[in-house]
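User: Can you predict the 3D structure of serine-type D-Ala-D-Ala carboxypeptidase? Sequence below.
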Amino acid sequence: MRLLIAIAACLALAMPAAAQVEFDTKAKFAVLMDYESGTVIFQKDADGRLEPASMAKLMTLAVVFNEIRAGRVGMDDEFFVSEHAWRTGGAASGGSTMFAELNSKVRVEDLIRSVVIQSGNDAAIVLAEGIAGSEGTFALMMNEMAQDIGLTESHFTNPTGLPDPAMYSSARDLADLGRYLIREFPEYYHYFSEPDMEWNGIRQSNRNSLVEMGIGVDGLKTGHTEAAGYGSVVSTEEGGRRLVAVVHGLGSMRERAEEGRKLLTWGARAFERFTPYPEGTIVAYADVYGGEIPSVGLVGDGEIALYLPRGSRQCLSATVNYNGPLLPPVHQGDKVAELRVYCNDQLVQTAPLHAAQSVRQGDLLRRATDALKQLALGWL
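Assistant: Sure. Here are the predicted structure tokens for serine-type D-Ala-D-Ala carboxypeptidase:
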């Protein structure tokens, strides 16, 4: 069921189409997302298929963090450096590496730090083999978790991001993945802002050069292959709110850093916060078939906030979508609907809506009345 609703009087909304009049990037793929609400402030081929390169390691880290949280892996556990990990991801491979020694054992925490800071391919493979026995089995875990997160345009085949024609993602999915890591695993997020790491006598700087630029960037991951170009998933709280940005398909490390910096800086300064629905505000009502009351109020999960481009005045529109009518019992807090916000008919944000109160089954008269209503008119 689809209900048209009014958000507020004619106010501005951060919408990609309007934003792109004022901003552009050299990146082939780009997304700028508000962390708190998920609003996409800027996009450029956001759903186009791309080679994630080492940014795929964010999915590797999501699986590793989840295994640690579940108690199946400990930070002090030691994993064996196999010949496969050493040859495919070590110094001999010519790619980013931890320089882990063949047949040695490395603590899980050190492997995590290497994946984050050094983008160590050997470290990523060692983690995959230590957790799942092989890269292939670990990739199945990556894809299962990606599906749970809601990454609809991604498929992973290895933990490193090394080139594989069957592996792909999108800028939007990478931004959503970055947002997921920050939200779900805050206890591990500090690793992303560490400036350097030393292993086997070799010190390497964080490959995300924006971390040390003094603009508030504290994560997340860079990536590069010859075919895909240079990309990064970056985040900052500069400007009073957290933003997550993705840029990809650039020609050099310098270009990657500059385009990421420009996108984050513009996003932090060009927008202001708008809260059309404070916490507890009824957004709309959903019909309840045969309930003790005919409808239930719908509220957000806390306040529903949007970001507006400064100086812009455009009318907003929104719909509430749900499979209706709802059937009792409906429990307070149940997620039963979705708010979809549009600007000029372009979907720019979605937010879950929950039942504001519980609704039990109605008496025989109420159920009979609703049945007659359905027969006579249907549920519109």
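Residues 8-21 have pLDDT under 50 and may be disordered. The two ends are 7 Å apart (CA to CA).
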